[in-house]
Amino acid sequence: MSKTIYLMRHGETLFNTQKRVQGWCDSPLTQKGIEQAQAVGAYFKRQGIAFDAAYSSTQERATDTLKLVTDTPYQQLKGLKEMNFGIFEAREEELLPKHRPGSRSFEDLLVPFGGEDIHEVGRRVEEAILSVAETDPAQSILMVSHGAAIWGLVQVLDVQFPPGVFLPNCAICQLNYEDGQIQFEHLIDPQNDFKVYDL
């Protein structure tokens, strides 16, 4: 049975504006972040998209975003949590290790510093989505997660994004679930007039 899952990133937060690492630590949505989430909610209504179920990460910024997007009752899932950045949590982003040449992510560079391997994060997110898809009868599902967590899933499923396209705040990944498989279909960019990219 086919299901549609809208996996989105939370709205802008205080730490985003301060260019601080925001993994397992948290900070509140800014006024802009609130407005971004409200705009996504309005977009879904314009598109006639309603949700049978909703899930968020256990972190405040994701849950607050979800509640601004939809009135659908929701559950929190630890599997949708952001990546753990170890000793870099709440520190300036410029202190993070640089990606290896040719890499699209931190890979395992944060593990020696108490953080997670992004591929393990991606598998964690994949398992959370599959668990919901296989047990929840809902056909249209909203999930609110985080930038690195979603990017980990992108790495694990080997999805190719268009050059220069990433995951801005409130970015929406439209996924299809069928026969135990997750397929990325579209990226919807709310920071660019809700431009839709085929994946």
Please tell me about this protein's structure.
This protein is an alpha/beta fold. The chain has a single domain, classed as 3-Layer(aba) Sandwich (Rossmann fold). It has five helices and seven strands. The chain has a seven-stranded mixed beta sheet with strand order 3-2-4-1-5-6-7. Helix 2 crosses helix 3. The longest helix has 18 residues, at 118-135. The protein is globular and about 45 Å long. The two termini are 21 Å apart. InterPro entries: His_Pase_superF_clade-1, His_PPase_superfam, PG/BPGM_mutase_AS, Phosphoglycerate_Mutase. It holds the Pfam family His_Phos_1. It comes from Streptococcus oriscaviae.
Largest sheet: 7 strands, mixed
Number of strands: 7
Question: Could you estimate the helical fraction of the residues in percent?
Answer: 25-40%
Structural class: alpha/beta
CATH topology: Rossmann fold
Query: Over all CA atoms, what is the radius of gyration?
Result: 16 Å
User: What is the count of helical runs?
Assistant: 5
- What would CATH call the class? Alpha Beta
What is the CATH homology-level superfamily? Answer: Phosphoglycerate mutase-like
| Major sheet strand order | 3-2-4-1-5-6-7
User: Low-confidence segments, ≥5 residues, pLDDT <50?
Assistant: none
SSE order: EHHEHEHEHEEE
Mean pLDDT equals 96
Q: Structurally, how many domains make up the residues?
A: 1
